[in-house]
Design a protein that fits this description.
By secondary structure, this protein is mainly α. It has one domain (2-28, 37-149). It has helices spanning 2-25, 28-31, 61-83, 89-112, 134-149; strands at 33-37, 41-48, 115-120.
């Protein structure tokens, strides 16, 4: 579980450091937008009270706390599940990415009432209206990794 813990810790630290930088140093909530390498990479402030792409967004405290509890339950479930699997590094790193990203977004909901999204990327004449953060990338990559690297021989399941 060392690889999972390391991946979770690094993910959480990078996510929270990047959010602190754009919120408190660059003052993105006031500025709203900073063109870095347009249109490929820009900073666009978005406070997400829902899940991906703002689904289930709501300003209510019930939604906020339900999403916090759901993220903690999923992260805890993934952590317990991977601890019972054969110690495969790529599976553990994938689980750590997912758990670290989920915890990063939980911290945002606790601290700000919403998840701080700020990375915006567009390309090839397509204008992407959505913003995301490092935690979102880690959750997505971790989920894909869990699918790819779980199962098979020696996965710790009884025969």
């Amino acid at each position: 579980m060392r690889a999972a813990a390391l991946a979770a810790g690094v993910t959480l630290a990078l996510d929270q450091a990047s959010k602190a930088w754009v919120i408190h140093v660059l003052d993105l909530p006031r500025r709203l937008a900073i063109d870095v390498v347009p249109p490929f990479f820009n900073l666009r402030m978005a406070w997400n009270t829902g899940v991906n792409f703002g689904l289930f967004a709501g300003d209510g405290e019930v939604t906020r706390w339900a999403l916090i509890l759901l993220a903690l339950a999923i992260a805890g479930g993934v952590w317990i599940w991977v601890s019972r699997q054969a110690p495969r590094a790529l599976l553990q790193v994938s689980a750590g990415l997912l758990v670290g990203g989920a915890l990063g977004n939980v911290i945002d909901r606790l601290a700000y009432g919403a998840v701080a999204d700020f990375i915006n990327m567009s390309c090839c004449g397509l204008n992407n209206p959505f913003a995301f953060n490092i935690a979102d990338v880690a959750i997505f990559a971790g989920a894909i990794g869990i699918v790819l690297f779980s199962g098979g021989e020696g996965d710790g399941r009884p025969s």
